[in-house]
Amino acid sequence: MISPCQSQSKYNDIPNRYHSLLDSSLIKAGSNTQEILKALNNVPKLQKEGMAFLISYMPKRDLTTLSAEFILENVEYAYKAREKYPWCKALPDSIFFNEVLPYSNVTETRDPWRKDFYERFAKYVENETNLKDAIFAIANPINKEVNVEYNVERSIVDASPKEAMEEQMATCTGLSILLTDAFRAVGIPSRLAGTPMWTNMRGNHTWTEVWIDNEWKFIEYYPKDLNKSWFLADAGKADPNNPIHWIYAVSYKPTGQYYHASKYGFIHLYDELGPDGIPKEFQEYIEWEKENSEIDEPYIHGVNVTQRYIDLYRKSLDNKKLNDDEMLAGFVIFKDNDLTNSSSRMDCRVDVFKGDKKLILDSRPVPPTI
């Protein structure tokens, strides 16, 4: 057990607010405690608080396994970016600590990507002074730089940068991890966002967000522009009353809720909401996964950003002229004739036909693939 007096002597140059958190993390580290202490004690004074932040909120899986060398290199190169790039130098500590400094996003393998990506992507932003230009200087060429393309044949859903680059393929989670890590490597605040399931029950998606102009905006691995992508219409129909259909963003620091759009997030929601909260079509799949997979307790923290995406979608429709053969339509399905009772509303598939031609494809649910 670590006593308060030990705590005071051990944490020189670290703000008091981290001391009890560090005590707890060192206990969780178990046999790896000396590696965590080595990282904390060997970091330069100006990087002490950043190191304290990382260790204070570090998941147990990392406290028990990460080496001091891994953690120190990650912190060293994050601070190199903070010193080198004007957009990173201007960040408040809260954003730098939570969206630049972290070495991980979700459940991916913990690769030492930071130094490689710092050196690999520096050439793209060497002459940039504008943050938006820097964002696209990274996003536009990233697929060619890392030689990774979208492919559902990938073997790992939550592929780390190394795993994706070895296979030369990834799906949306792996691609978003690559892009987010590339942004962080050059000091651009970035995080993952996604949904466990669209409201049309046609699957899920993961993407990247960046902090620019004092707000979060989304971008994809194959970028068009900030806050523009094929999925905005789906995201704009998210259900703020149903966590299955929320839009989540990742936070390294605890927020009081979890990020349920990652691997096994759907299963964690099942445990949280119970059978009545999950569509019946998925329950057999979930039970099979629970019996056949080793599923950790949730440890990826998140924030609910659903309303922001709803607002973005509504704004995109403002003053948007429909074609002559287009119309806006909303559907509300009731399970009985009581149309005044909101509890009679149903969450179900809707198919639209013109004569014998189906205008909306079958949206039968499929197990999430992320």
UniProtKB/TrEMBL annotation:
- Cross-referenced Pfam families: Transglut_core (PF01841)
The record ties this protein, via SUPFAM superfamilies, to: Cysteine proteinases
What is this protein's name? Transglutaminase-like domain-containing protein
Q: Where is the Transglutaminase-like domain?
A: 164-223
**Can you tell which superkingdom this protein's organism belongs to?**
Bacteria
- The residues that cross the membrane are none
The cross-references to InterPro entries, in alphabetical order and at most eight, read:
Papain-like_cys_pep_sf (IPR038765), Transglutaminase-like (IPR002931)
